[in-house]
Write a structure and sequence with these properties.
InterPro entries: HD, Homeodomain-like_sf, Lag1/Lac1-like. With about 160 residues, the chain is mainly α. The protein has one domain. It is built from 8 helices and no strands. α3 packs across α7 and α5 packs across α6. The N and C termini lie far apart (about 65 Å). About 5% of the residues are buried.
């Protein structure tokens, strides 16, 4: 079954334009092409990036946030109410106030607090934004570094 799934996934018609196939990617004449098995390298790299992100958020972004005055907001927890929970964002406030015995204002307050409970905190947003900034800045610098032609630098020094 696994072999059939693999054969289906690697069909030439899915990956190549008409007239080309896997045989065209075999190493020849000193040319070395990427192989499908090279994609497995992406998994450990992704895992490493997840670990680096966690370390970055804990050791750099969180202290930076406290230095800049970004604080974790304390959100009020709503009391557990099964009937309100089941109708969360699905029913009208008037009918819910009749079912629960709460006033309409209390039901609206419960819904507002429940909605706010699901929102990410300002600190979490800051950590994510700082990670993205750092990641894309480093990716940009690495891209620029890979574009530098060493031969043009060496020839200009002569």
């Amino acid at each position: 079954m696994l072999a059939e799934l693999s054969d289906w996934f690697w069909q030439e018609r899915l990956w190549f334009p008409e007239g080309l196939g896997w045989a065209d990617l075999e190493d020849q004449d000193g040319r070395v092409y990427a192989k499908g098995r090279d994609l497995w390298a992406a998994l450990p790299i992704a895992l490493v990036f997840l670990i680096i992100r966690q370390i970055f958020e804990r050791t750099v972004a969180t202290p930076l946030a406290s230095l800049l005055g970004v604080k974790e907001t304390v959100r009020l927890k709503v009391p557990h109410n099964p009937s309100l929970e089941s109708y969360y964002c699905k029913s009208s406030v008037a009918s819910l106030s009749k079912q629960t015995g709460y006033s309409e204002r209390q039901v609206q307050r419960w819904f507002r607090r429940r909605r706010n409970q699901d929102r990410p905190s300002l600190l979490k947003k800051f950590r994510e934004a700082s990670w993205r900034f750092t990641f894309y800045l480093l990716a940009f610098i690495a891209g620029l570094a890979s574009l530098i032609d060493r031969r043009s630098i060496d020839s200009s020094q002569c």
